[in-house]
């Protein structure tokens, strides 16, 4: 009787959360490693970012085999700006704080969008591009990103909120862009390297878009 009840409980589990455990396990491994690399900076940060970008390039090359009209050059235009931005941001004065702010805001936005979107549901954000994304998830992700921004930089809450809002919007646009790219290639995930997330392009789509935006904002604010 106990075995049957356990089986029924398993079968009746909400399918919306079937990948939650794998996602949490991946995050518990990747997040501390990422923060450690940001904290150390220097050669460690350069090596980690270079390795990640090389992995994304491999994923793009494999995707290009599915659509010959999409060349490797488009992948360079898509990936390399974020590589340059992450290296320059960390190497600048206050780079550790800047990159931590960027990453934590994007991560918080991803988590918030995932949780709120699954809990609330509702109208689809862009059904033709990514049927799983909802307006509630986008709103939840934005709120979580702003809260993370204020938590990381509490001394200037207004500026932190505006910056986090801008980065969240850009990151979510990057998420949609990557979804459109996968739809074009006819694949569900860009790769298989990260359990629960797919490939590096899947996991870092928000960073790919937000990192160049952060570099541009940093340049404009320092120039002004």
What global shape is seen? globular
Low-confidence parts lasting 5 or more residues at pLDDT below 50?
A: 1-12
The largest β sheet comes out as: 2 strands, antiparallel
Count the E strands.
Answer: 2
Order of helices and strands: HHHHHEEHHHH
| Secondary structure tally, helices | 9
Gyration radius over CA: 18 Å
Report how far the terminal alpha carbons are from each other: 71 Å
How much of the polypeptide forms β-strand, as a percent range?
under 5%
Share of residues in helices: over 70%
Tally of distinct domains: 1
Strand order of the largest sheet: 1-2
| Average residue-wise pLDDT | 85
- What structural category characterises the helix and strand content? mainly alpha
Explain the overall architecture:
This protein is mostly helical. The protein has one domain (19-223). The protein has helices at residues 2-11, 20-40, 42-64, 72-91, 95-120, 135-152, 157-185, 200-203, 205-223, and strands at residues 124-126, 130-134. 36% of the residues are buried.
Which key features would you list for this structure?
224 residues, mainly alpha, two-stranded antiparallel ribbon, 9 helices, 76% helix, 4% strand, disordered N terminus
Give me a quick take on this structure.
The protein is 76% helix and 4% strand.
Q: What topology emerges from the helices and strands here?
A:
Blueprint: H1 2-11, H2 20-40, H3 42-64, H4 72-91, H5 95-120, E1 124-126, E2 130-134, H6 135-152, H7 157-185, H8 200-203, H9 205-223
Antiparallel strand pairs: 1-2
Helix pairs in contact: 2-3, 3-4, 4-5, 4-9, 5-6, 5-7, 5-9, 6-7, 7-9
